[in-house]
């Protein structure tokens, strides 16, 4: 499975591509950061982020895009900018028919380090180790984008199994309700 990991942001937006194999094997393909100057107008910055993401979507053709979900931030302005950057990338993926998955920072940290409260240095160290990189990815936005892609590769099979189990349970509930209704109808005759 080819996954594009996105650490959304306006000043720095991390983009990565990894290929997930069997088990927990992941192979890095590409990583970079799209940068925009803070003094530019919001619309222009979003356009640069969207153009960068679209170029990656067209070049690397991921099967899924994993984006960091804005969970909570003390700075509302930063949270809004992060959400807007993630939104334009999700839109670009949706226009190409590519599914988008959102993962919270704690889910990503837990998947990669085993600790949902790990700091950036721990995430970067584990990403470097997991991918067998000779040099740690920099800046942190690049490492975070890789961590998102790794997280999705490792969580997607479990999420798929849970969704299938929930669907089977829903089907069983519907069949049970139908049988119960038929039995009640037969008793009332």
UniProtKB/TrEMBL annotation:
UniProt xrefs under Pfam families: RuvC
Annotated Mg(2+) 2 binding sites: 68
Cofactor remark from the record: Binds 2 Mg(2+) ion per subunit.
GO terms (BP aspect): DNA recombination; DNA repair
Names of required cofactors: Mg(2+)
Task performed by this protein: The RuvA-RuvB-RuvC complex processes Holliday junction (HJ) DNA during genetic recombination and DNA repair. Endonuclease that resolves HJ intermediates. Cleaves cruciform DNA by making single-stranded nicks across the HJ at symmetrical positions within the homologous arms, yielding a 5'-phosphate and a 3'-hydroxyl group; requires a central core of homology in the junction. The consensus cleavage sequence is 5'-(A/T)TT(C/G)-3'. Cleavage occurs on the 3'-side of the TT dinucleotide at the point of strand exchange.
HAMAP family: RuvC
Protein name: Crossover junction endodeoxyribonuclease RuvC
Gene (UniProt): ruvC
